[in-house]
Every structure is written in C-alpha cells, then in structure tokens.
Amino acid sequence: MTSPDTRPTPPLGDELLLDCDAAGTLPTPRRPHEGRQRLLLLAVLVLVAINLRPALSSLAPVLKAVQEGLGLSASHIGLLTTLPVLCFGVFGPLAPKLARRFGSERMVEAMLLFLAVGIVLRAFGSAGLFAGTLIAGASIGVVNVLLPGILKRDFANNADRITGIYTMALSLGAALAAGLTVPIQEWSGSWRIALAFWALPALLAALAWWPWQRGRHSAQPLPAKSPSLLHDALAWQVTLYMGLQSSLAYCVFGWLPAILQDRGLTALQAGFSLSVSVLIQLITALGAPLLANAHVRRGGDQRATIALMLALTLSGLLGCLFAPVSTLWLWITLLGLGQGGTFSMALALIVLRSRDAQTAARLSGMVQGLGYSLAALGPFAVGLLHELTGNWSALGLLFTLITAAALFSGLAAGRHGFVLQQSRINP
User: Fold this and answer.
1) How far apart are the first and last CA of the chain?
2) pLDDT in tens, 334-367
3) What CATH number corresponds to the domain at position 351?
4) What crossing angle do the helices spanning 267-297 and 233-262 adopt, rounded to 10°?
5) How far is residue 226 from each of residues 28, 124, 176, 221, 359, measured CA to CA in Å?
6) Which domain holds residue 176?
7) In sequence order, what are the residues at sequence separation of 6 or more whose Cβ sits closer than 8 angstroms to the Cβ of residue 419?
8) pLDDT at 337
9) How many independent structural domains does the chain possess?
10) Closest by CA position to 167, among listed 24, 352, 347
11) Under a CB-based contact definition with an 8 Å cutoff, are residues 61 and 270 in contact?
12) Stretch 34-38: mean pLDDT, rounded?
C-alpha cells in the first residue's frame, strides 16, 4: 500500500473530490458506473440540479404582482427573498446526519418531493407563501450538500468537467424559471399558477431519481478526532468568499426584475433580462473550473481570476442600477459572466484548498452552512434599504461594499495552500 508521503499529487480533485459521500463518510468500495448506466445517472443528476434554483428565480419576475395581490410590505418581501437562502445555511448542515441515517439517495428523493410540496404551497395566501418558501428552501439546502457528494463519488476521474456541468445545470434551471414564469402568468392569468407550475419539473426529477434512491451505500464514520476547521484561517476565507459572492447572486435572483421594472421595463422584459443574464453564466460556470485546474497544474493560484470575475459582477450590477436603459444588455452580459465565474470559483476553492477527501467534505459543509447563512443577509438588506429610501440608489453602495469584502476574502482564499496547514485563528 502506498504511503501518504510517497503518493503522487493528483490532478484537480481526482482524488480529493471523490471518494467521500455527502455525509462526509467513506463509502464501501464499489464498481463505478460505466457506459450507458453512467451517462444515465449523470443525466438524472443534471435534471435534479436544474430544480435547485427555480423556487428562487421564479418569484422575482412576479414579485410586484405577489406584493400587490397579498398586500405585503417591502420588508416582508425582503424577508421572503431572504428565507430560502437562510434555509440553505440552516438546513444544509443537517444533510450529513440525514445521509448517514437514511442514505444520500433516499434523502434526495424525499427532498425533491418536499420541494414540490413547498412550491405548490406558495400559491395559497401569505401563510402558504412563507411556509412553502421555507419548505422549498430547506429541501434545496439539504440537496445542495448531498448532490455534489454523489457526483464526487461516482465520477471521480472527471472532477473539473462534472463541477462545470453541475454549475451549468443550476444556472439553466434558474434561467428557465426567470424567463418562463411571466409568460406562464400571462397565459394562465394568475401569478399563483405561475409559481405552482415549477412543482412539475420537481416531480419529474423525483420520478427519474426513483430507481437510483433504492441503493443505499454503507458508510464508515470519519475518525473521531479531527482538527476543527473553525480554527483555520483559510477555511474562514473560503467560507466568507462563498457567502459574500452568493449574497450578490441572491440579490440578483430576488430583486433584479423589480429594479428593472422600476426603470421602465415590463414584467416580461425584466424576467427575460434576468433569464439572459443567468444563461450567460453558463459560459464562465463551465470555464472557471477548467481554468482553476490549469492554474493548479502550472503551480499558480486563482487570485487574478477571482478579481476579474468580481470586477465584472460589480460593473454589471452598477450598470443595471445607473446606466442608461438603452445600454442594459451590456451590463446584463457583464453581470452574467461575472456571477457564473464567481460561483464556479467558490466551488473550485473547496476542492483546491483541501488535501484529501475527508477534508473536502468537511470544508464543503462549513462553506455551505455558514456561507449561505451570511448570503441571506444580502436580499434582506436590499428590501430594507428600498423601504427606508423609497428608491434603489443606495444599492450601489451596498453592492460595492459586499464586492470589496468578497475581493478581500477571495484574494486570501485564492492563494495556493491547504486548510489545516495554514496559520490558525486562536480559539
């Protein structure tokens, strides 16, 4: 057996991605999926991933109609846009325990069904809207943690490509919901039907996943004594970068159509603009992990890429707020390129800053749990500022401050190194 000291360093993630499941445990060795079965599994996983964003991006294009129909204040709307992101942080850390008890595949199946229920509930008054959003957010939060682990386990030799495909599927789902919700509303004459419609693809994903959920993989617990990531500076830097860039992303998902409508666009045009921006994310969503892989093999780091992606993001946001509407498509394009890259780099950093599979699983749990909890503050702050000022101008300063903080943490996280080997934060 090769000793740890003599084992060659693998390419990006080929070893460290992908021998642990989402529960942070080492599964019993098994034969990898091959041929058609493996491609079918990937297709089903992509279908599941597509359903992890419509619950968020479908609300934004009809937000004004929902607010008027239910008589909600701007602060209520701010809470509504914040709630699902907060659920990602609160319920995501429960995924490892649930997976150890019931199996990752079974929990994905259960969460897809709960997601469909939550989406439908949003159509039934104020109480249903908030309760359904809570259920949908909790369901997505659990799958957010489980699904990458399954990808890691079953596609160990294609870590960078699979990360890109997974990120593209998330963006595609968000884009479809952002672009089609208003047409569905106009066709049906009801924003309630438009929101409830997105339960159908969730049920389709649950049906497609059903054959896979029957196979639970036995697991062995991690060693009892492991250094705490909470005392590691680099782990916090990766977490802060994930949370801050996600905060900007969910501000866009939750509020961009409303902002554009106040600038003169129709609901259909505003929803289409968000959809196009998210579709453009597909370019850098796939490209960023490949670029990260190339940097590692050349012995470099990711600081320049992180800075570029954040600069594109802030330029796009400020352009959407203040530039002439006639130039909107330029800023929508820059925003999409920037946000696709920032998110992909956040996922890549989890892998790049972990020396082994167990550490990668633990870092992923910390980054998603604490990071998304931090990200939830962004959409709420947007709603609060809008209610206090009566306009969107103050968002320019808010977005600039968040971007500056993301840049500070991203430049620190982008340096070559590994968690648990950097300087520690004193407890």
Assistant:
1) 37
2) 999 999 889 888 887 887 787 776 677 678 778 8
3) 1.20.1250.20
4) 160
5) 21, 47, 42, 12, 9
6) 36-219+228-413
7) 229, 232, 234, 235, 238, 353, 354, 355, 359, 363
8) 94
9) 1
10) 347
11) yes
12) 68
Query: What's the rounded mean pLDDT across residues 34-63?
Result: 84
Alpha carbons 298 and 161: distance in angstroms, whole number: 18
Find all residues with CB under 8 Å of 212, minimum gap 6, and list them.
Answer: 41, 44, 105
Round to whole Å and give the CA distance between 305 and 345.
8
Q: What Cα–Cα distance (Å) separates residue 81 from each residue in 68, 240, 262?
A: 16, 20, 18
123 φ/ψ angles, rounded to the nearest 5 degrees: -85, -5
Q: At what angle do helices 35-50 and 125-154 cross, to 10 degrees?
A: 150
- For residue 250, give the amino acid letter: Y
Q: Which residue has the tokens 């997505």?
A: 140
Q: Residue 143 is encoded by which pair of tokens?
A: 């799958």
Residue 410 CB burial class (10 angstroms; 0-12, 13-18, ≥19): buried
The type of residue at 54 is P
The Cα-based distances of 243 to 199, 368, 403 in angstroms read 27, 8, 11
Q: Is the backbone of residue 313 left (phi > 0), alpha (psi -120 to 50) or beta?
A: alpha
Residue 422 falls within a domain, yes or no?
A: no
User: Could you write out the three-class secondary structure of 366-392?
Assistant: HHHHHHHHHHCHHHHHHHHHHHHHCCC
Task: Go through the chain and tell me how many residues it has.
Answer: 427
Q: Report pLDDT for 60.
A: 83
Tell me how far apart the alpha carbons of residues 80 and 62 are, in angstroms, rounded to a whole number: 13
Contact present, 92 and 246 (Cβ < 8 Å): no
What pLDDT, in 10s, does the model give residues 227-255? Answer: 788 888 999 999 999 999 999 998 998 88
Residue 92 within a domain: yes
pTM, two decimal places: 0.77
Q: Does residue 424 sit within a domain?
A: no
Average pLDDT, the chain: 81
Q: Which residues contact 282 (CB under 8 A, 6 or more apart)?
A: 168, 171, 172, 340
With cut-offs at 50, 70 and 90, classify the pLDDT of residue 96.
confident
**Residue 4 placed within a domain:** no
